[in-house]
């Protein structure tokens, strides 16, 4: 790992920020049940549900902070505003959108914690939402029309967005770079993926994952003075209730899948492409006393840092190192770690560089099994982490993600 100037990392410490509650939709394989739903409507569903479950009135929300990567509906510009308004948040409360690629979900929780710590609000609504299914077939060069014989440049945004032109490598290629650098072999990656599926199956069958999921059904969202919005499921199923990519997956089955990027990564040991949304509430201690509801966790600190784009998957290593230094903790002090499973080789590179005890890592499965709806993933990671600390009795947890373009992000939480 090349030496990095950790002094350039963006470090935030929070004095009085608490994760009050959280919920998410099921993460459903793309082009399936949720594929007709705009991420705005998935976000509204998550926002309404987290408010209802927490007991916090929407009228108490002081800011709405959202995350979404791809513009997948014509009203994408108003995603943050509509999520807030249709969740019942007062008209006067502002909303904004955050884009830190795969780290966006963690970033919005950090921005909410900053807002609470600065006393600018007592309660923040954070929602990450993504429709991978609705990523467009797009063209950016035809505004002035089509000239005779000129090439037509419509391309698949979902695929093309994987390329980082600064280094001429797609995201899968960055994982392959790490595999070569850390001598990670195909059997290592498939074995890791099989364990992700195995752990996710156990978490699903035990009911652990169900504790953070709200069922999504055909539903209309109505607010006085606004036009109705709605979710309509694809097909005849009455509701989407479970993560759909989680399934029995043997090592032998994984070994038969062809490489996707010419090396160790395949469609089976990379993050699943899914649609979904997740929401959490971040509150001050004064608000918790007013609501008289115990929180899930304290939001302690967060770090964002740049890393070389061609090995962007190593980002969690640098972010976690700075986070531990900033908080005076050691990795042994951390009871649970969630690293987003963008690619199996990428997570294994982080494991080897940090010497992570894998019995603490992604213990309920990760994005290889559950899925990676970009803007929602960081919210899911942090929510699952907080709930796992509650379940296991651990004190500290770190959620982290690598970020396309060459960044890493990490957040430290403490069980309440």
Structure characterization notes:
Helix content is 32%, strand content 21%. It has 416 residues and is an alpha+beta fold. It has a domain at 14-134 and 211-241 and 270-291: 3-Layer(aba) Sandwich (Peroxisomal Thiolase, Chain A, domain 1). The strands form five sheets. Strands 1, 2, 3, 4, 5, 6, 15, 16, 17, 18 and 19 form an eleven-stranded mixed β-sheet that branches. A two-stranded antiparallel sheet has the order 7-8. Strand 4 (63-67), helix 2 and strand 5 (95-98) form a beta-alpha-beta unit. Helix 5 crosses helix 10. The chain is globular. It starts with 9 loop residues before the first strand and ends with a strand. The mean pLDDT is 97.
Number of helices: 12
The second-level CATH architecture of the domain at 14-134 and 211-241 and 270-291 is 3-Layer(aba) Sandwich
Q: Give the CATH topology of the domain at 14-134 and 211-241 and 270-291.
A: Peroxisomal Thiolase, Chain A, domain 1
Overall pLDDT metric: 97
Q: What integer value in Å does the Rg equal? A: 20 Å
Relevant CATH superfamily of the domain at 14-134 and 211-241 and 270-291: Thiolase/Chalcone synthase
First and last CA, distance: 35 Å
Sheet/helix structural class: alpha+beta
Strand content: 15-25%
Largest sheet: 11 strands, mixed
Measured as a percent range, the helix fraction is 25-40%
CATH class of the domain at 14-134 and 211-241 and 270-291: Alpha Beta
How many β-strand runs? Answer: 19
Uncertain residue segments = none
Shape: globular
């Amino acid at each position: 790992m090349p030496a990095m100037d950790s002094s350039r990392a963006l470090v935030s410490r929070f004095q009085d920020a608490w994760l009050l509650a959280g919920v998410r939709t099921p993460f459903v394989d793309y082009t399936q049940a949720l594929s007709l739903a705009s991420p705005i409507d998935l976000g509204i569903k998550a926002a309404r549900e987290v408010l209802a479950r927490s007991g916090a009135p929407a009228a108490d929300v002081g800011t709405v902070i959202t995350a979404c990567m791809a513009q997948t509906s014509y009203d994408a510009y108003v995603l943050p505003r509509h999520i807030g308004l249709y969740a019942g948040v007062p008209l006067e409360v502002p909303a904004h959108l955050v884009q830190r690629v795969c780290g966006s979900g963690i970033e919005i929780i950090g921005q909410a914690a900053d807002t609470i710590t600065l006393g600018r609000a007592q309660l923040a609504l954070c929602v990450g939402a993504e429709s991978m299914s609705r990523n467009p077939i797009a063209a950016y060069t035809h505004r002035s029309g089509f000239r005779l014989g000129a090439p037509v440049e419509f391309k698949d945004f979902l695929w093309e967005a994987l390329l980082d032109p600064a280094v001429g490598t797609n995201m899968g290629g960055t994982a392959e770079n790490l595999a070569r650098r850390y001598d990670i072999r195909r059997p290592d990656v498939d074995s890791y993926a099989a364990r992700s599926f195995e752990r996710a199956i156990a978490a699903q069958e035990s009911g652990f994952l169900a504790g953070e999921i709200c069922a999504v059904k055909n539903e209309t969202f109505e607010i006085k003075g606004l036009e109705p919005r709605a979710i309509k499921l694809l097909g005849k199923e009455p509701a989407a209730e479970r993560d759909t990519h989680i399934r029995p997956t043997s090592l032998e089955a994984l070994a038969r899948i062809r490489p996707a990027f010419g090396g160790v990564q395949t469609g089976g040991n990379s993050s699943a492409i899914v649609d979904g949304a997740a929401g959490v509430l971040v509150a001050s201690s004064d608000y918790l006393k007013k609501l008289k509801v115990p929180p899930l966790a304290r939001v302690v600190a967060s770090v964002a840092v740049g890393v070389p784009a061609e090995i962007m998957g190593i980002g969690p290593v640098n972010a976690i190192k700075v986070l531990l230094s900033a908080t005076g903790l050691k990795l042994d002090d951390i009871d649970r770690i969630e690293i987003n499973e963008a690619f199996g080789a990428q997570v294994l590179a982080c494991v080897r560089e940090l010497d992570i005890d894998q019995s603490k890592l992604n213990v309920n499965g990760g994005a290889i099994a559950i899925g990676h709806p970009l803007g929602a993933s960081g919210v899911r990671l942090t929510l699952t982490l907080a709930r796992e600390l509650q379940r296991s009795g651990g004190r500290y947890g770190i959620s982290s993600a690598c970020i396309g373009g060459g960044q890493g992000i990490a957040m430290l939480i403490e069980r309440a």
